[in-house]
Amino acid sequence: MSGKLLRLVCVAATATGTALAPLPARAVPEPDAERQQVAALLTDLQGLYRKAEEATEAYNATEEKLKKQRAETDRLDRALARARLSLHDSRGAAGRLARQQYQSSTDLSPYVRLLLARDPQHAIEQGHVIGRLAQERAGTVTRLSGAERKAGDLARKARAALDRQLALTERRKKERDEVRTRLHDVEELLASLSREQLTALAEFERKGIAKAQKEFMASGALGSEADVDAGDADGKNGESDGTATGTTVRTPSAEGGRAVRYAVRQIGKPYEWGTEGPRTYDCSGLTSQAWTEAAGTPVPRTSQEQWKQLERIPLDELRPGDLVVYFPKATHVALYLGGGMVVHAPRPGAKVKVSPIAANPVLGAVRPDPGGEPLRRYEPPELPEGATDGSDEGYDGYAAPAPDTSAR
User: Fold this and answer.
1) CATH number 1.10.3470 given to 1-193
2) Which residues have a Cβ under 8 Å from the Cβ of 303 and sit 6 or more positions away?
């Protein structure tokens, strides 16, 4: 590794708060020292990615709340418009009632008119009519009072709903800016590295993932699925690549199978934060669309809510279509294919791809359709060529500028 990369490591460590031991005073570091510095740089870069993904999922959560709040505000506005129209009609009826009372006013009470009437029976019948009219007039007054109360209540709720919408809009703007800041940090670090240095990082990451995958599969965490040899993470050295086209022990439900096929069809599409297709995806945008749109089973939009709301299952019960959640804060999610492999939208600069399940630290798994019966026969979808290619960290073709979502 060049002296320039070593200086960048120190700069990156200082920027992210990572303490590194002083470098040896030699022009060319020893292999062990070089590996340590690459590992430190990779750790810093992964930390920046995680912070960006946390900010992205926070933005997604606020965006979902904002969508619901807009719908609620619109509903209240429509209800208020109807209430005001009803109030207008009630006030018109009350006005007609007042005019009728004024025009038919007399100094004689109904009882005096009854005593003076030539035909008392007819007067009594008229009294019944008068009683009904009185009831109708009372009803008109009651409806007017109720319409006024309802309109006033709806007006207060509509104002409160609008205030909540404005607050969410402001929060979303701050979270959007936070994502952009975090991605700018990643962009700066990556832009300072040469192609050779990026290649060294990607190779170091690949070997780390391969080791983590072998240890994960050997641990028996997947139960009988662990018998399916995932081999080296990139399928080299003549070993199985562990993709969904290999032998799998379990079968998905019908809905899970549709979710898997949908996710596989998205392989190769770019990652873009805050999106859920059809041209670009972030991690939870891919999994939510696979289940909600393709499988017809609604799931939450964000990885945190998917982890929080969906039924959790042991890893040794994973079947294709289940969702694998990563990192302590549940900030990344992938869709399980079988054979120890997942399909996911990894990071900015990367594309939807197939990766080993242990490419990131596994938090756990959830099942969107816990009541779904496994299919008796299941033919895994054929993966497109290059489905496992590329770095999960998006070193190849990093799409630095964050998209402008101010109009969303």
Assistant:
1) no
2) 57, 283, 284, 287, 325, 330, 331, 332, 333
Dist CA 192 CA 183 (whole Å): 14
Q: How far apart are CA 396 and CA 389, in angstroms?
A: 10
Judged by DSSP in three states, 233 sits in: coil
End-to-end CA distance of the chain: 44
Residue 202 three-state SS:
helix
Which tens digits make up the pLDDT trace of 99-136? 555 555 555 455 555 555 555 555 555 555 555 555 65
Neighbour-count burial for 49-67, b at 16+ CB within 10 Å, e otherwise? bbbbbbbbbbbbbbbbbbe
- The answer to whether 151 and 42 have CB atoms below 8 angstroms apart is no
Looking at every residue in the chain, the average pLDDT score rounds to 76
pLDDT digits (tens, 9 = 90+) for 221-267: 888 775 554 444 444 433 334 444 444 468 999 999 999 999 999 99
Which amino acid makes up residue 187? E
Domain 222-367 has what CATH class? Answer: alpha beta
Contact 37, 11 (CB under 8 A): no
Pairing of strands 311-313, 332-338: unpaired
Rounded CA-CA distance 282/271 in Å is: 5
Assess whether the region 1-193 and the region 222-367 belong to the same CATH fold.
no
* Alpha-carbon span 109 to 116, nearest angstrom: 11
Query: 3: which 2 tokens?
Result: 């002296």
CA distances from 252 to 91, 165, 246 (A): 62, 40, 15
Q: In terms of DSSP bridges, do strands 323-326 and 332-338 run parallel, antiparallel, or are they unpaired?
A: antiparallel
Listing DSSP states for 259-303 in one string gives HHHHHHHTTTPBB-TT-BSSS-B-HHHHHHHIIIIISS----SSH
Q: What values do phi and psi take at 124, rounded to 5?
A: -65, -45
Question: What residue spans define the domains of the chain?
Answer: 1-193, 222-367
Query: Residues for the chain: how many in total?
Result: 408
- Percent helix, strand and coil across the chain, each to the nearest 5: 55, 10, 35
What φ, ψ does residue 131 adopt, rounded to 5°? -65, -45
Name the residues annotated as catalytic: 283, 332, 344
Cα 48–173–14 angle (5° rounding)?
A: 25
**Secondary structure letter of residue 351 according to DSSP:** B
